[in-house]
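Final report, closing paragraph on structural work. Over the funding period we assembled a curated collection of sequence-structure pairs, and we close with a single example.
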Amino acid sequence: MTVEYEKQGNIGIITINRPEARNAVNRAVATGIESAIDQIEEDPEVWVGILTGARTEKGYIFCAGADLKEMSTDPGGMSTKKGGFGGYVQRERTKPVIAAVDGPALAGGTELALASDLLVASRAAKFGIPEVKRNLVAAAGGLFRLPRVLPRNIALELALTGALDFPADRAYDLGWVNRLCDEGEALETAKGLAAEICANAPLAVAESRKIMIEATDQPDEVGWQMSNEGIAKMFGTEDFNEGLTAFIEKRDPIWKGR
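Its predicted structure, as stored:
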């Protein structure tokens, strides 16, 4: 399958599986990722997603971006109406997704990583938006999301030079990468991070994610309103009572997501 989806406990793992094409995005990849996100969003037992790429014969690679060979014959095929490029970069989601990047994540691959909520990268990972080298523009979110996670001048340099070798360790030092690991360990490290998230109440995680994304660049009044509305939603849930009961009984809570 071009995109594989596997459920492990409360974690849904999406793997781009086109090693012969360096996991580049074509129509099948875009529709496959969209379908996998649909499964994550619709399954009440899945609380966190992970997006990664299959290993190739030449080593690890996350995604080489758009399949330029197919772009000439099927230019709209690598996007979906609901998710945009890769069926993902414009997708509205309620659950966090971690990008697990081993090896290069270039052009659209960088933009898939930017569209994720958290980023785990191995020391073999590297990023770049080289579209200017092909008289293209990084139109899948890279030009406005990259300066949100990196200093503006660094992001601008990457966009204007089209450099292909921005290393994961530098991205980690600048605060974009959440967890840095050795080559070949990105997926397992991402699973560990996902497990830390899954130890918490899934409704509260989803609401916290929503408030942080929507209120960060808004005036404080918006943040206060959304925070108050968010906590009010928690009061009427089963998991709210479970959290208090588990604290009183000095045990780990058993979350139900309702």
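The chain has ten helices and eleven strands. The radius of gyration is 19 Å. We thank the funder for supporting this effort.
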